[in-house]
Amino acid sequence: MYDGPERRKHKRVRQDYTVGLQVKPCNHNAWTMVTMRDMSVGGVLFLAKNSLDKDTFLDLEIYCDFYREPIRATGKVIRVQPGKGDTEFRIAVLFTDIKEDAMEKIAYVVETLRGH
Question: How would you label 43-80 residue by residue, b for 16+ Cβ within 10 Å and e otherwise?
Answer without folding.
Answer: bbbbbbeeebeeebebbbbbebeeeeebbbbebbbeeb
